[in-house]
Specification:
Layout: E1 9-17, H1 21-31, E2 35-36, E3 47-48, H2 55-71, H3 83-91, H4 94-128, E4 144-150, H5 154-161, E5 165-168, E6 173-178, H6 182-191, E7 195-196, H7 206-257, E8 263-264, E9 268-276, H8 280-287, E10 293-298, E11 300-301, E12 307-308
Antiparallel strand pairs: 1-9, 1-10, 2-9, 3-8, 4-6, 4-7, 5-6, 8-9, 11-12
Helix pairs in contact: 1-7, 2-4, 2-7, 3-7, 4-7, 5-6
Length: 319
């Protein structure tokens, strides 16, 4: 026997005075009972509702909190927290705490980028170190062209230097020739299996620069470790509060932007959507003070696969 249970759905139409729209939407949000059918703007005399003035700020706050949640690992809250308590947190210190966390994460990303760059520079300096030539002397001449890199055939590379200067560093070579000989030398070096090394910026002895970079990298990694520790502590202290804040902000954002799903005139509104029939009575009671009309018609599958409800303005689509 199938374990899938279908629920009887009904088409809700609720209409009222425009001034009561926010209250009606607030009530529906609390009930979590309505699947909106977005108004398409196709009916004469009606237009799309406009989101609340607060929706943009709530959206910005929501994006920040989502970004923070994505950066940490935190278990779901173990206890229920009242909306009042969560809202007090959102209006209090939580935004500053979120900014602090995001600042830490931004700095960690920055450190990772810098450490990678320094590691790459160290590797390059390590490759050219056997040449025993200060970094700034490997390039930058007006009358000479330099070739710094590795080759498969050292003897062929030496021959390619011809009347220029050839320095053999074992795994790396350096060739300096007059500018007018550069094209011929380049061609000969290619035949020797030459692969150029992209030289780092800077000056001085390569080994000294390597030691300097290693020290800077250690300092950065120590800072990163400290920041990671702070982030872990932040997560333990504020993680549940953050998740609760996220849930409430998502609810607020949905609520403040939901008017764009509703048909309105200068003085009235019409809400359209699907509800479960076993909740229809409660929904009607809840909307009684904010809506002039609240109608729920059961969705019926007719013989031959057709369907029927009493709304002829929209093509019904069951959620």
């Amino acid at each position: 026997m199938s374990q899938v249970q279908t629920r009887q759905m009904g088409r809700l139409t609720a209409a009222g005075v425009l001034d009561n729209l926010d209250d009606a939407l607030e009530m529906l949000s609390r009930l979590k009972a309505l699947h909106f059918i977005d108004y398409t703007g196709s009916e004469d005399g009606f237009s799309l509702g406009t989101p609340s003035d607060k929706s943009e700020q709530i959206g910005r706050d929501l994006n920040k909190v989502r970004a923070a949640v994505a950066q940490i690992e935190v278990a779901e809250p173990t206890e229920m927290t009242s909306a009042t308590s969560v809202r007090k947190s959102l209006d209090g210190e939580l935004p500053e705490k979120v900014d602090s966390l995001l600042s830490h994460m931004s700095r960690i990303d920055e450190i990772d980028t810098v450490v990678t760059s320094k590691s790459e520079e160290e590797a390059t300096l390590g490759a050219i170190s056997p040449l025993e030539i200060d970094v700034e002397l490997l390039t930058g001449y007006s009358s000479l062209t330099s070739f710094i890199g590795t080759v498969n055939d050292v003897n062929a590379a030496k021959a390619a230097a011809a009347n220029g200067i050839f320095i053999d560093g074992g795994d790396v070579i350096a060739v300096f020739v007059k500018n007018e000989d550069a094209s011929e030398t380049s061609s000969a070096l290619q035949n020797a299996g030459f692969a150029a090394i992209q030289l780092p910026e800077g000056e001085g002895d390569a080994d000294a620069r390597i030691n300097q970079l290693a020290g800077e990298r250690v300092e950065l990694l120590n800072e990163r470790e400290s920041l990671n520790s702070d982030v872990e502590s932040w997560s333990l202290e504020n993680g549940e509060e953050l998740l609760c804040g996220l849930e409430l902000l998502e609810r607020d954002h949905d609520l403040k932007t939901s008017p764009v799903k509703v048909a309105v005139t200068d003085h009235a509104f019409v809400i359209d959507g699907w509800v479960e029939m076993d909740r229809a009575h409660d929904i009607k009671l809840a909307l009684a003070n904010t809506c002039i009309v609240v109608d729920v018609e059961p969705f019926v599958i007719e013989a031959g696969g057709a369907h029927h409800d009493d709304d002829h303005h929209h093509e019904p689509v069951s959620p």
